[in-house]
Amino acid sequence: MKKCVIAPDSFKGTLSAAEAVKIMAEQVKIRFPGCSVVSLPIADGGEGTADCFLEAVPGAELVPITVKGPFLDYVGAYYVRFGDTAVIELAQAAGITLVEGKLDPMKASTYGVGQMVLHAAQNGCRNIALGLGGSCTNDGGVGIAAALGAKFYDKAGREFLPVGGTLKDIVQYHDSACREVLKDCNVTVLCDIENPLYGENGAAYVFAPQKGADGEMVRELDEGLRHLAALITYQRGVDVSYLPGAGAAGGCGAGIVAFLGGTLCSGIQMVLELMKFDDRIRNADLIFTGEGKMDGQSAGGKAVSGVAAHGMRQKIPVVAVAGAVGEGAELLYKQGVTAMFSITPGPVPFDEAKLYVRRNLRNTMDNILRLYAVERK
Q1: For position 302, what pLDDT does the model report?
Q2: Where are the alpha helices (DSSP H) in the chain?
Q3: Spatial distance between the Cα atoms of 165 and 221, rounded to a whole number of angstroms
Q4: What UniProt keywords apply to this chain's record, in alphabetical order (predicted)?
Q5: Which residues are CB-contacts of 138 (< 8 A; sequence separation ≥ 6)?
Q6: Which residues touch 245 (CB under 8 Å, ≥6 apart)?
Q7: Which of 46, 51, 226, 356 sits most deeply, having the most CB atoms within 10 A of its CB?
Q8: DSSP code of residue 294
């Protein structure tokens, strides 16, 4: 094997994409010492998206910044910049890991995310990519807009900062200042889901329970998103609620389109495009990819399906490894995956499996490469 590409997503809860790449690449080098290994940790818009660019794009730099967190206390965050492009993770300022033990999507705000966008725009970034995975919020992106200058008013004409539980109190808004700040910028939302803004498949009903919402809170949050959508339609004349990805990050997908003039796109496709993935895999003999669990959702625009599609176009075999292979994963074969393997040797609980994920990934890679070496001979 002369050239091998290693391009996994993170194994959620166990390994970052960069850690997975390191283990996988080491095994390739052991079995094929002369092989040129291209290491490309990837992400599809969720956690780790900024880090994957830092690892994979020459010249990318980390930009540290202090912003307001989900409950408006200050937190340290960063985004990644290369050229005039900024890659910002919503989770840095409004992530669920920032509020462990005190989840409350009724009160959490995305204001700090807007501060990150503002900082990037004011410092010369003209292309801003926003990864929306891992949020603890359900504010429809109004916090982001407010940090960029948008004004929201209640029925008494008072300006206020809405959150998930008070979206219903907005009676009008002005977002001209927000759009002025971004007039020279292209804002792209990296989505890894296709859910609408509200309803049984919307942001509140599908994702808010993971953020600490009970049944009554879910209903209130959904009603707030419905109210916001109706207000946007009334003031702007467009309905953003059913755009694929509108419900991402508690409705931020819809809010970024409405208030920032952003565009929703497939997270993995944009990530691979920005990385010039097609050029970097050219003439490879084999591509390895993977993630924590592969199932039917993986075939719906997640990282593995994106990598596989690019490999298929160049007729490069794609081998996928995962902590578990679940129902529906076979759909990936039609998308370009040549073979897939679970690294977990037996049916064990996640809490036990995660203790041995490094060893199991190493052993699985070794077995695959042993077989590949025999085939090459």
Answers
A1: 84
A2: 17-31, 49-56, 91-94, 111-122, 142-147, 176-181, 203-207, 215-236, 248-260, 267-274, 277-281, 303-313, 350-353, 357-376
A3: 6
A4: Kinase, Transferase
A5: 105, 106, 108, 164, 203, 204, 207, 208, 211, 213, 221, 224, 225, 250, 251
A6: 189, 191, 193, 194, 195, 253, 264
A7: 46
A8: E
CA distances from 170 to 16, 19, 173 (A): 40, 45, 7
pTM of the entire structure? 0.86
The two tokens of residue 330 are 């076979």
- The residue ranges of every structural domain in the chain are 3-42+279-376, 49-268
64: which strand partners? 78
DSSP 90: T
Task: Classify residue 186 as exposed, middle or buried by CB count within 10 Å of its CB (0-12, 13-18, 19+).
Answer: middle
196 neighbors 239 (Cβ within 8 angstroms)? no
| CA gap 27, 268 in Å, rounded | 26
Distances (CA, A) of 97 to 137, 202, 205: 12, 22, 20
Query: Is the separation of the CB atoms in 262 and 142 below 8 Å?
Result: no
CA geometry: angle at 35 spanning 34 and 37, to 5°? 135
CB neighbour list of residue 355: distance below 8 Å, 6 or more residues apart: none
SS3 245: coil
pLDDT at 375: 73
Question: In this structure, are residues 118 and 181 in contact, taking their beta carbons and an 8 Å threshold?
Answer: yes
Q: Dihedrals φ, ψ of 278, to 5°?
A: -60, -40
CA 74 centroid distance within chain: 23
Can you state the percent helix, strand and coil of the chain, rounding each to 5?
Answer: 45, 20, 35
Q: How many Cα atoms within 13 Å fall on the side-chain side of residue 366?
A: 8
Radius of gyration of the chain from its Cα atoms, rounded to whole angstroms? 21
> pLDDT at position 13, please?
77
pLDDT value at residue 146: 98
CA distance 150 to 132: 20
The residue ranges of the chain whose pLDDT is under 70 are 376-377
- Residue 32 tokens, joined: 């094929």
49-268, what's its fold?
Answer: Glycerate kinase, domain 2 (3.90.1510)
Task: Give the count of alpha carbons within 13 A of 143, CB side only.
Answer: 34
3-42+279-376 adopts what CATH topology? Rossmann fold (3.40.50)
Q: 98 is written with which tokens?
A: 């920032």
